[in-house]
Specification:
Strand order of the largest sheet: 5-2-1-6-7-12-11-8-9-10
Number of helices: 9
Helix content: 40-55%
Order of helices and strands: EHEEEHEHEHHEEHEHEHEHE
Distance between the termini: 37 Å
C-alpha cells in the first residue's frame, strides 16, 4: 500500500533531453520526500495558413492531443518508477500563469525545470522558461542544467546578498527544505570589491552567530560562488530574490541567468 503523498513536485515537460534530465531529478526528489510528480506541458494553438486565409486549430483538439501524449509519457514513467504517483496537466497559457494557478489549486510545493545547454552566443539572445519564472512565483524553482547527471541532494549552499535575507520568512523555507531532504546547509556571503550594500555591523554580527554565515572575498559574485561550490562539493545552490527591492533585478535576473549557464549543479531560486 502506497503512503499518502503530502507534497507535489511540478516538472516542465517539452520532450527534450533537458526536460528528461529535470524529470529524473524530480523523481529523485520525490523518492526522498514521498512526494508526487506532476508533468506539466505548455503548448501553443497553431495557426494554419491556407489560400482562403488563416484559421486556428481548435483548442479542444489540441488539448486532447497534448494530454494523450502526456498520458502516454506518464504510463512509461509509472512502469519505470512504480513507487511514484504521476499526474499530467497541459495548458495553452503562459508558463508563469499556468504554474501560479496550479500552485493555488493543487498545492504545488516545488517546480523543477531543465536548462538546455546553449552556445555562449545564443545565451544572450534567447530566454528560457525556467529563468523567466525563477524567483517570480510563490514556490521554489529548481533549474537543472542538462549536463548535470549526478542527481543527489547532500549539501546545499545559500548565497546571501545582505543581512535582510536571514531576517525574512524565506529562511524557514530554506530550513524546511534542507530538513526534508536531510541536507547539510551552508550560508555564504560573497564579499566583492565593488559591493555597495550597506550592512549594519551589529545585525550582521548577530546574524552570523545564529546562522554561521561564511564570508568569502572575491573579485565578483559569479567567480566567488562558483569557486566555493566547486571547492566544497556542493549539490545545490540557492538564491533568494526580493520583490520590489533594488536587488531584485541585479541579484535575481542577472546573477541567476549567468550562474545557470555556468554552474554544473542545479540552482534553486526562492521568492521571499
Amino acid at each position: 500500500m502506497k503512503k499518502k503523498k503530502n507534497k507535489t513536485i511540478l516538472v516542465g515537460v517539452d520532450y527534450t533531453k533537458s526536460s528528461d534530465n529535470a524529470l529524473e531529478y524530480a523523481v529523485m526528489m520525490a523518492k526522498k520526500s514521498n512526494a508526487s510528480v506532476m508533468l506539466f506541458h505548455i503548448y501553443e494553438t497553431p495557426v494554419v495558413h491556407t489560400f482562403s486565409g488563416a484559421y486556428f486549430v481548435s483548442y479542444k483538439e489540441m488539448q486532447g492531443y497534448n494530454l494523450a501524449r502526456l498520458e502516454k509519457y506518464r504510463s512509461k514513467l509509472s512502469v519505470k518508477h512504480p513507487s511514484i504517483d504521476f499526474s499530467v496537466f497541459a495548458s495553452y497559457k503562459s508558463f508563469k500563469t499556468g504554474v501560479n494557478e496550479l500552485i493555488k489549486s493543487r498545492k504545488v510545493h516545488y517546480v523543477v525545470l531543465g536548462l538546455e545547454s546553449k552556445s555562449r552566443f545564443s545565451r544572450f539572445i534567447y530566454g528560457t522558461t525556467g529563468l523567466e519564472v525563477a524567483g517570480k512565483i510563490s514556490c521554489p524553482v529548481i533549474i537543472v542544467p542538462e549536463r548535470y547527471k549526478q542527481h543527489k541532494l547532500k549539501t546545499s549552499v545559500l548565497a546571501l546578498d545582505n543581512h535582510k535575507t536571514i531576517e525574512s520568512k524565506v529562511m524557514q523555507k530554506i530550513t524546511d527544505f534542507n530538513k526534508q531532504f536531510k541536507m547539510q546547509k551552508e550560508l555564504v556571503h560573497i564579499k566583492t570589491e565593488d559591493e555597495f550594500m550597506f550592512v549594519n555591523k551589529k545585525k550582521a554580527s548577530d546574524a552570523n552567530k545564529r546562522w554561521k554565515v561564511k564570508i568569502v572575498e572575491a573579485k565578483n559574485f559569479e567567480d566567488g560562488i562558483l569557486s566555493y561550490v566547486k571547492q566544497n562539493k556542493i549539490d545545490l545552490l540557492s538564491i533568494v530574490s526580493h520583490a520590489h527591492s533594488t536587488m531584485y533585478e541585479l541579484f535575481n535576473e542577472s546573477n541567476t541567468k549567468q550562474l545557470a549557464f555556468k554552474t554544473r549543479i542545479p540552482i534553486m531560486s526562492i521568492h521571499d
